[in-house]
Design goal:
Strand content: 15-25%
Order of helices and strands: HEHEEHEHHHEEEEEEEHHH
Strand order of the largest sheet: 3-2-1-4-5-9-6
CATH class of one domain: Alpha Beta
Distance between the termini: 68 Å
Number of strands: 11
Helix content: 25-40%
Structural class: alpha/beta
Largest sheet: 7 strands, mixed
Bound molecules: S-adenosylmethionine
Number of helices: 9
CATH architecture of one domain: 3-Layer(aba) Sandwich
Length: about 280
C-alpha cells in the first residue's frame, strides 16, 4: 500500500511537471495589474508581464521594464528552450480615446500601436511561423481588422448595472466574439473614480465593490481597475489562440490573420494570397 502510494505520488508529481512544462507562455506587454494576464492564465498560458511602472498587484511573473527590451530577448530565449509562446500587447489607449480626441489632446499621449506591431513583426514573422500575437486597444485605435468584445457578451454586471466596456483585438489568428452586445441595463462606469453622488441629478454611482464584481477582478485598486480589461475577454481570446492540436499551424505553416490594414492595404498575411498585393 505504501509502495503504491509512493508510486502514485511520484507519478502525479511527474505528470504535474510535464503538464506545467507543456503550458505555453504568454508575454504580456503593458501588463498593468494583470486583467488581461489573468484571462490568458485561465485559458492555459503561463504569463510573464512587462510594465514600465511597478505593479505590486500583478499576480504572475513580472518584469519591470520598458516594453521593447523583453520583446527583443525573451521570445528568442523561449525558442531556444523549445517553449511554445504567444505575445499580447495593450499599449496605452488615451491617444485614441474619444474624450482625448474631443478635447484635442492626442499629442499629450503616446501613439504606440504601429510601433509595437512593427516590433512584434520583427520578432515573430507573423505570416509564416504562426506564433500568435494579439494587440488590444479601444475602438478608434488603428488596429488591423479587429474583433470587438463587450462586457455584456459575457453577462458581466453588478448591482443592476451592465459592463458596457468595448475593447478591440487584432491578431494573426482569426478571432470570433462569443455573442452580440446586449445593452439592456444602465452602463457600469468603470472609469474616473468609483462611487460618489450627483446632488443635482439625485444619483449615486456604483462603488468599488460593483466595479470589482462587474469586471470579474477582486485584486485591484480602483485606479488599476479603470485601466484593466476583464479577464473574461482574454480567456475567450486565449482559448482561440491556443490550438491544442496544431498550435495554430495549418499543414503548410500559414495562419489566417487580418485581411487588410485600416488603409485597405493587404497585410503580411494576405500579401501574395489570391494574387493580392504580390
Ligand atoms: C491600459 S494599461 C494595461 C492594462 C492591462 N492590460 C490590464 O488588463 O490590466 C497600460 C499599461 O501600460 C503601461 N505602460 C505605459 N508605457 C509603457 C512603456 N513604455 N513600457 C511598458 N509599459 C508601459 C502603463 O504603466 C499601464 O500599466
Amino acid at each position: 500500500m505504501r509502495e503504491l502510494y509512493r508510486t502514485r505520488s511520484t507519478t502525479d508529481r511527474n505528470l504535474h511537471t510535464v503538464m506545467r512544462e507543456q503550458r505555453p507562455r504568454l508575454l504580456d506587454l503593458f501588463c498593468g495589474a494583470g486583467g488581461a494576464a489573468m484571462g490568458y492564465y485561465r485559458a492555459g498560458f503561463d504569463v510573464v508581464g512587462v510594465d514600465v511602472n511597478p505593479q505590486p498587484h500583478f499576480p504572475f511573473e513580472f518584469i519591470h521594464a520598458d516594453w521593447e527590451e523583453p520583446l527583443r530577448y525573451l521570445p528568442g530565449l523561449w525558442e531556444r528552450e523549445g517553449v511554445q509562446y504567444a505575445i499580447h500587447a495593450s499599449p496605452p489607449c488615451q491617444h485614441y480615446s474619444t474624450m482625448t480626441k474631443k478635447w484635442g489632446r492626442e499629442d499629450y499621449h503616446p501613439d504606440l500601436v504601429d510601433e509595437v506591431r512593427a516590433a512584434i513583426f520583427e520578432v515573430i514573422d507573423p505570416g509564416a511561423e504562426a506564433i500568435p500575437y494579439v494587440i488590444e486597444n479601444v475602438p478608434g485605435a488603428p488596429l488591423w481588422e479587429p474583433m470587438m468584445l463587450c462586457g455584456t457578451m459575457f453577462a458581466l454586471e453588478s448591482q443592476g448595472y451592465g459592463l458596457q466596456r468595448h475593447r478591440i483585438f487584432e491578431s494573426n489568428i482569426f478571432l470570433m466574439p462569443p455573442a452580440m452586445c446586449y445593452h439592456h441595463l444602465p452602463a457600469l462606469p468603470v472609469y474616473g473614480h468609483a462611487g460618489g453622488r450627483s446632488k443635482r441629478d439625485g444619483l449615486k454611482f456604483p462603488g468599488i465593490d460593483a466595479w470589482r464584481e462587474g469586471m470579474g477582478i477582486d485584486w485591484m485598486t480602483g485606479k488599476e481597475l479603470a485601466e484593466a480589461i476583464p479577464p473574461a475577454f482574454t480567456e475567450h481570446v486565449g482559448r482561440q489562440i491556443m490550438d491544442p492540436t496544431g498550435w495554430n499551424k495549418t499543414p503548410d505553416g500559414v495562419s489566417f490573420g487580418p485581411v487588410c490594414d485600416p488603409d485597405g492595404q493587404p497585410t503580411p498575411f494576405t500579401k501574395g494570397m489570391f494574387g493580392v498585393g504580390s
